[in-house]
Amino acid sequence: MLTWAVLGSGSSGNSYLFSDGTTSILIDQGYSVAELKRRLAHFQASVDQVQAVFVTHLHPDHARGVGTLARMHRVPVWIHAKTLEVQPQEVAALNIPHPLVQGVEPFQTITVGPFSLFCYETSHDCEGSVGWVIAHGGRTFMVLTDAGVTDEVQRRLASGAEVLFLEANYDVQMLKSGPYPPFLKARIASTAGHLSNDDALTFLAESGFCGRHVYFIHISDTNNSVPLLEAAARRVSPVPFTVCAKGTYHGVVGS
What we know:
By secondary structure, the chain is an alpha/beta fold. Helices cover 30% and strands 26% of the residues. The chain has helices spanning 33-41, 60-63, 66-73, 81-86, 88-93, 152-159, 172-177, 182-189, 197-207, 226-236, and strands at 3-8, 15-19, 24-27, 50-54, 77-80, 101-104, 110-112, 115-121, 130-136, 139-144, 163-167, 213-217, 241-243, 250-252. The relative contact order is 0.15.
């Protein structure tokens, strides 16, 4: 029986769980270990089952808790090899024990127990930013977050996924009229920033995704609205979906 979950998503912390009850893996770990344990418990999972963490990029909301988890529980951490090469100081600041840091190239398959994973490149203002595809027993999941634009490779990967975790960070009009300074608005809306609601829904349509469920993730609590995104997705999404508000957790236990 497989569990998958959004342990939390947004600027205060991000982490995604995949577990078969014996082996668990995480995509990102942006929480303290104490908070991670609390969130894992909601899905009947334990930190002692976590066998690896796979990092999308080094921004603190995705990686601030990686080093502590690695040191306390000897959990290996997989990071795009480009990140290790061009951001050595940022990697060192995480204080991950050296034997536990593993570099990976895009589309290189990593096996952890019954799970197999590979990463693919994303467009974000952090060198070596990637998304992840996770497979277990014939089921495929895709995590696509923190990407200013999408591409044909990502659309092809999404078309073959059963469950998609897809960024929908901001509403265009809310961002334009919101309180952020101009430089930050420009960064968010850039091709190295984040996906808007429109971007996410266009991606769904163009990829032909027809899997089991979509989780809209990394929702801004300043520049987006859960009801607004729900209404827009209801009009166009061909599959059931969940809008994951900042800090909340959602998932399926034992399916």
